[in-house]
Fold these 2 entries.
Entry 1:
Amino acid sequence: MLTAKVSKRSTIDVRCILYTVPSRLIGRQLELHLYHDRIVGYLERHPVVELPRKRVSGKGKRRDRCINYRHVIGSMRLKPRAFIYCTWQSDLLPNPEYRQIWKQLKAQFDLEQAAKIIVEGLYIAAVQDKEQAVAAYLQQQLQASSLTLNRLKKQFEPPQMKQVPDLSIEQHSLDLYDKLLPSYSVPAKPLPTPEPLFKKAQALPHADPLGIYRIPSYAGKLVLCGILTGLVRNGNSTKRTSSSKASSHRSQTPKRKSFTNFDFSHCPQLNPAPLMQLAADPGWLERAENCLLLGPSGVGKTHLATGVSQKMLEFGKRVKFFAANALVQQLQQAKLQLQLHPVLKNWTAMIYWSWMTWAIAKSRKRKHPFCLN
């Protein structure tokens, strides 16, 4: 396996052999796999070119070249006079038939006009895959002394697409979609009353009622109760703490944000009991359930998401915190560096997405992501 950079002439040098490659690869670093009969070039682990392998033959001959006119004829068509002084001139002509045509063109036209005709013929042969048809037409016109560049272009001009007629489409009524509903022919039943998003937790007999959770003292008790419950369930606090610090560093969660320093009185519409229940028991994570926080800007969604993430870290779960703008910039940079596929492959576990900020956690045995917006 070798590596070679494509030169500005769209060539690579492999074992003293000069090969041409497609001009779109100019400036790229190719990874070459050498076989006994071919050379396969890879770019970012994807095969982009396959060349016939050639070996130096003959005594006293140290270098050789393998030229394919299909690789360079597109750029040469912009400057057809370069064909006159090209050192690969005989190699660009694919067979003896084209070499004979080039001799006849030089005899009947001046060099500049002959170069334009032969380059245009090679371009048509490469683009339309009509190498034999172009050669036969050139020989026929040369014998009749009626060959011109415009006639050559017109002879092999690709068929034009038929003009699409103007269509007048009448927009159907949107009421027709009602017929697709199962309840169209059946009297509509009254919709059930939707359940509230957050249900009030039942008050424990040994605790103060949650109906007055807006008082700071009760919020502090709830936070301390969740923390103590997590400490009791964790066990081996020293080992858990060190592991939690390492996991918190890898998760990139915002620091100094937890349930202990969140002011629940700032958002009186929020019932903290369900969040405390999620933070105290990771069973919902094992069941691959999602937690979605919705609300206007500045109410503390990121703060609460970080608090739940830290609790999951204490239970030994894997957490990853993302900001949407940083993620978009990372994807754009990976695309420019041709690394988009490996980056997306590393994020196969990220199923749920949001537009603001999110955290993703996975259990150790199975990948169970959850999204916090």
Entry 2:
Amino acid sequence: MAYAGSYVAVAKAGSDLVGACAGFYGQIDQEWELHSHIAGVTSKARGRSVGFALKTHQRAWALHRGLDRISWTFDPLVRRNAYFNLSKLAARPRTYLQDFYGPMTDGINAGDETDRLVAEWRLLDESVARACAGRPEEPDIDALLASGAVVGLSADGAGRPVVGAVDALTVLVGVPADIEQMRAVDRPSALAWRRGLRQVWGGLLAEGAQVSGFARTGWYVVRRCRGEAGRGRAAADTDAAGSAISDVVRYIHRAGRAARARRRRRRRRLGECVADASPLYSPEYVDGCAEVLRRFLVPALARSADVTAAGVAPALAAFKGNQMAKAALETAVLDAELRSRDVSLGEYLGAVHERVPCGVSVGIMGSVPELLEAVSAYVWRRVTSG
């Protein structure tokens, strides 16, 4: 793997191997990332920050190669792993995968179902930088309960799971102290925890709730959008609306399948958001726009009677600001319409020329020679014409 350019690292104490980590490149949602396939520390080395050292080394390795995201899977019932991933490293769950690996017969997983969380580690986030500098954040469970959080999953006196309320903005989801030991001595209870966690999270995550942290005492903190708390069926309707707009776009594109075949080598994205990765230049930023689109704009447009490019602005008029997110949705719908009619954007806008003079903004350089070198490079690449 290392020979082929993937990530492979080991940790040693003298001549003894005490930890290892390996990962490979992957692409999710058209973004490249490093997928950390396996990371482990020997039992004798636990509690000595070996795993933390391996992951911070992996982060530095990825950043050096232009990557800003690492993902991996972990068992959400293993308390020490959840604390390490979500608190010590400040990663956040991206997806819940049900019985991901299927039946396994090893000593750790035998007799259980292999549900996994996909952790996403945004390497440039401030919370990640603080965590890697030794300043992790851990939620205060007592303070959350005092402010109205409810307990969605907890243990009874015998250590078996009890499903509770989930009708609040903040839901606390507990896991047992040692699920691996429980599997060894009480497999039915271990399986009950698996299915209890799946039941609680299945509903919450389907509504768009987000896991914001994990406490060492064994509690996931799940936060919901204010409009979602207590809505039940309404939240499911929102999900259906989000799917509806995708169905509309797919339908429009099916009508233009022949046109797409002729344009196969052109860009494949329906719309584009021009926000930056961080809110430094504008209040809007990529992750924020994605959240606004998913929670509010797409469902609102799906409920509209006029799902066309011309109907986007009226359908979204109630939402203030977020112009970049709105533009991304409007251009996506417009692109779908034009492709269905085999009409180019130029034709739609009334263009009369097939080629027009264009140029680039070179920017401010440190010296005249640097400026000339940059201009020469653009000319050589024939970015300008005419």
